[in-house]
Structure formats: C-alpha cells, structure tokens
Specification:
This protein is α/β, with parallel strands linked by helices. The protein is built from 15 helices and 20 strands. It folds into 2 domains: 335 residues, Glycosidases (TIM Barrel); 74 residues, Immunoglobulin-like. Strand 7 and strand 8 form a beta hairpin. Helix 6 runs parallel beside helix 7, helix 8 packs parallel to helix 9 and helix 11 runs parallel beside helix 14. The chain binds beta-D-glucopyranose and magnesium ion. The site of magnesium ion (MG) has 6 residues, from loops.
Length: 545
C-alpha cells in the first residue's frame, strides 16, 4: 500500500513525518537556562522529558543559527554555527542525542531563501562587481530615467515597500522579499546553490532528522525580472504594495522542482529523514500537489487553518480542498497556530470558553487525515497577551501595528504561576502573559480535565488507532453550521469524530452501527442511536463496534 512518499531507506509502516505528531518550538521562548531572559538549548534540553510526555514524535525548532536577530533568527549570518544566545554546537549535539534517546526527532528550520545582510557571503557580494560572490545575491541595475536611482521593477517586499534596496558601493539594487536586512540569495548561481545544499548536508551529518524549509517556494524569481501585474483587493492589507499585485514572477517559479529533487536525494541517502516545505502566500492546494511526491517534498507546511474563523464550515472547506487536490499520493499537514499569527485560542474568541473551544480545535487537528503540527503552548490553551505598542519588538509588528502582530505569538512559555512563569530568572525578552497565573503547565499537569491532559489523551488515541493515523476521511454533514462530524476509516477500523463548535446543544445524525465512545470532553456516557446530541463545546470520538 504505502509507496506514498516513502523511500527504500524508510520503514513504510511508521514514518514520523506522516504517522507522528510534530511540535513546533520557538526556542527563544521555551526555557531560559542562564538568566539572560532568552530561551536556549540547555533550557530546551531540560524540557525534553515534558515534551516526550506529550507523546509527540518530532520537534521542529524555529531557527537557531547564528543571526543578528533582525527577524529573530530568520536572518542567518552563519549557517554552520549556532547563535551564542542559544548555546553552542556542542549543546546542539547534546540536544540531538538526548532527543533521540527519548524517541524524539529533531527538525531544523533552514532559511535558504535569504541570509542576513551580516552574512560574510553578502558582505563579500556587495563589496564589488568582481568579487567571487558578486552573483550570489540578486543584484540589478536601476531602471532607466529619473534623478534618483529607480528600482528595476515593481516587486514588493512582504514587510512593506519595494523589494529593492539601493547599494551605494555597487551602484546597484539588491532584492529582499522580507526586511532589507534579509537579502535574497541567487539560486541560479551554481556556486551559491552548491553552498546552500552543503548547509543541508552539514546538519544531516550532525544527526538532524529533517528540515522545515522556510518560504521554500520563493527560492527562484523570474529570470527576466518582469513586473508583476496589478491586482485589485478589498483586503485591508492591500494598503501594502505586496497585496496589490498578482505574484506571477517573484515566487512559485518552475525552477523549484530541481532543488526539491536534489534536497530529497540528500535526505533519502539516510534513513527516515523528512522534508517539510513552507509554501508561502499560496492558498491553492493544487500548487502544493506539484511540490509533493516521491522525489520532492514530503509535506507542505500549510498554515491555512490559522486564517480561518471559528466556523466548522471554514475548516471543512479547507480540508475538502486539500483532500481533492492532494489525492492519495500526497499527505496534508495542518496547524492551528505558529510564531507568525496570534494564537488560535485568542483568535477564536478567548474569554471564558477559551479552554473548551481549544479542546474542540485540538480534537479536530489530531483526528484529521494529515500530519498535525502543534505550536508550543497550545497544549495548555495559552492565549496571546495584549501587548502594548511600546512592548513590540518585531519589525513588521511595529510597522503594521495594530493590524499585524507576531510578538503576541512569541511570548514565553507558561510553565508555572511564579513571577516569570518559570521561564527565566532574568528579565524575559518579551513580556510574560498575565494569564500565566492561571494558565500554566504546572496547574494543568494534575488536573484530569485540563487541556494539557486532553491533548495527551488525543495523541495517545491517534497513536493507537490505525484509522485516525492513516484512514480515509469522509465528512458526514455537507454544510456544517454548528457541528462537524466525519469518519476516518481503514479496512479494519472505523472512527467517528463529532465536534460541537458552539455553546449550545447540537443534534447530529449518526451513521448506522454500534458506536463506543473512545474519548470525550464530556464525562457523560453516550449511547448514540440514529442521532447524537452534543453538549456545548463537546468533542467526542467513537469507534464502530
Ligand atoms: C517565517 C517568518 C519569517 C519569514 C522570513 C516565514 O515564513 O515563518 O517568521 O519572518 O519566513 O524568513
Ligand atoms: Mg538564555
């Protein structure tokens, strides 16, 4: 059966990236071991027992490479080193060994679309037209006309303004899709490409189990540098030039496949490695399908859920689109939150029902057909605090306040009710959410009804159930209004998932058969007949007897 994205070096019956649960760590905010207020690798190592106790299979670490931290690590100044604030390469080796000892895989975030402007490659590249790395970045002459140098085309930066920055020394513009301190690499240059491939090889040799490739569909830009056509949008973000263009020429270019194939070969030379690509600014899953497959990416990191309102029909539509586009030969991957969006607990409304809602969301994420990706802290329904404007430090969050906020997704993990939530003995780099007094790991550990223990139970159930891991998906309500129900089926097992998104009872039809409840947010014993009445915010999972 599963030729699906496996290779001769892997055990097709259990592939961590396909059968497991992946947990994203934002290393700055997990645990600080040395009191400098910033989370670090020794701090993370100290939490491995906790992470293993969740039952997750792999840890994806947001970037830990050396970086001036303009984009908090997504601006790398040395691919082969660890940022001193996080620790040393020896700490990383210890992390790998200690994680593997506990059966946890380590997935590294590789940011290969751009570097920091402080990377020695860029320093060299900008120094003259004739240096050996002159062509490692995307340099262009100004467009003709005008008094001041005019950008070569209309491409925009995601973080505002033009994507072109003037450089006096070279008398040319360089391209940056993100901050101007993040110049884009020129993947069309064979030496640059080889150097980037070597970074992947370097970390594979150090024992990492896979990569999350940052903005992996942006590596190539149009070779002719044609303007993007304008587009009309009612999206409030259309205040930015980026959102007023159709991005025909600055990402999703056909040249990408050869890179994915080459990276995949590197990974396939070793057992059980996984390649997860962040497909950026592309909502059409048919595009994902082009990048997935036996010789390309294993998974597309798909943040679509993070943009959905709390309505069952929104999530069901996203799932339906992926089921249709990916078919049986590719595998979806879902997440509710990450370091780029306010946390879902807050997005979905917060308030007194936040914990109840977050259990429903978790039950959905962990029972769908597709790899679940959890974001650190969601297992305790950690909310995003309301940060004051002066507390923001992320450049785009500062620039686009109050419309965009990434800092509120990145505040320290809430371990206990003490002053800094058990995160640090120093001054935390971002404020600790006031909610930590009530919402923290310590308080939830011994509470059988906590969100934390519900996550653990869901993960165990998924592990034990072939249908939840691998089975087909079939929605039972065509146009869901308040509740979402679906079947997950293999030849030997049928599971039914019933989720009530709202604070009132909902009655849903049941398919024929005898159903035994395997896990529920509500203690009451269900004996569903032709219908099932779900209590407010009830999530229940049944198995056909
Ligand atoms: C990461 C962001 C980062 C950007 C540029 C993204 O998709 O998730 O945090 O700012 O890539 O590297
Ligand atoms: Mg520290």
């Amino acid at each position: 059966m599963p030729t699906l994205n496996s290779n001769s070096n892997s055990n097709p019956n259990s592939l961590w990236w396909r059968d497991g649960v992946i947990y994203q760590i934002y290393p700055r905010s997990l645990a600080d071991s040395n009191g400098d207020g910033v989370g670090d690798l020794p701090g993370l190592i100290g939490k491995l027992d906790y992470l293993a106790s969740l039952g997750v299979d792999a840890l994806w670490l947001s970037p830990i490479n050396k970086s001036p931290m303009r984009d908090f690590g997504y601006d790398v100044s040395d691919y082969e080193d660890i940022a001193p604030v996080f620790g040393s390469r020896a700490d990383f080796d210890t992390l790998i060994a200690e994680a593997h000892r506990r059966g946890l895989k380590i997935v590294m975030d590789l940011v290969l679309n751009h570097t920091s402007d402080e990377h020695s490659w860029f320093r060299e590249s900008r120094s003259s037209h004739s240096n050996p790395k002159a062509d490692w970045y995307i340099w262009r002459d100004p467009a003709p006309g005008g008094n001041a140098p005019k950008p070569p085309n209309n491409w925009a930066s995601v973080f505002g303004g033009s994507a072109w920055e003037w450089d006096e020394t070279r008398g040319q513009f360089y391209h940056h899709m993100f901050l101007k301190e993040q110049p884009d690499l020129n993947w069309r240059n064979a030496e640059a490409r080889a150097a980037l491939m070597n970074t992947a090889k370097f970390w594979l040799e150090r024992g990492v189990d896979g990569f999350r490739l940052d903005v992996v569909n942006a590596y190539f830009k149009d070779a002719l540098f044609r303007d993007n056509p304008a587009s009309f949008s009612l999206d409030p973000r259309a205040a930015l030039p980026w959102f007023r263009q159709r991005h025909l020429h600055d990402y999703d270019q056909p040249d990408l496949h050869s890179v994915y194939r080459e990276l995949r070969q590197l990974l396939d030379a070793r057992p059980e490695r996984g390649l997860i690509g962040e497909i950026f600014m592309t909502e059409d899953p048919r595009v994902f399908a082009r990048y997935l497959g036996d010789d390309q990416l294993h998974l597309v990191y798909d943040p679509a859920f993070a943009a959905q309102p709390w309505l069952p029909r929104s999530f069901q539509r996203i799932v339906a689109e992926r089921e249709a586009a990916l078919g049986a030969d590719a595998w979806p991957c879902y997440c509710l939150s990450n370091h780029d969006w306010p946390r879902h607990v807050t997005r979905h409304g917060g308030g007194p029902f936040a914990a109840a809602r977050s259990k429903v969301a978790a039950a959905m994420l962990l029972t769908l057909r597709g790899t679940p990706l959890l974001y650190m802290g969601e297992e305790i329904a950690m909310p995003s605090p309301n940060l004051a404007r002066h507390e923001l430090i992320d450049p785009p969050s500062k620039r686009f306040w109050p419309f965009y906020n990434r800092d509120c997704a990145r505040t320290p993990m809430q371990w206990d009710e003490s002053l800094n939530a058990g995160f640090t003995t120093g001054k935390p780099w971002l404020p600790v959410g006031a909610s930590h007094k009530k919402i923290n790991v310590a308080a939830q550990t011994d509470d059988p009804n906590s969100v934390l223990n519900f996550y653990r139970a869901l993960i165990q159930l998924r592990k034990a159930s072939p249908a939840l891991r691998r089975g087909s998906y079939r929605p039972l309500i065509e146009r869901p209004v308040a509740a979402m129900t679906y079947l997950r089926e293999t030849d030997s097992q049928t599971m039914l998932v019933a989720l009530n998104f709202f604070g009132h009872d909902v009655t849903v039809p049941m398919p024929p058969g005898q159903w035994a409840c395997r896990l529920s947010t509500h203690a009451a014993e269900h004996a569903p007949g032709e219908t099932l009445t779900l209590a407010p915010f009830e999530a229940s999972i049944f198995e056909r007897r």
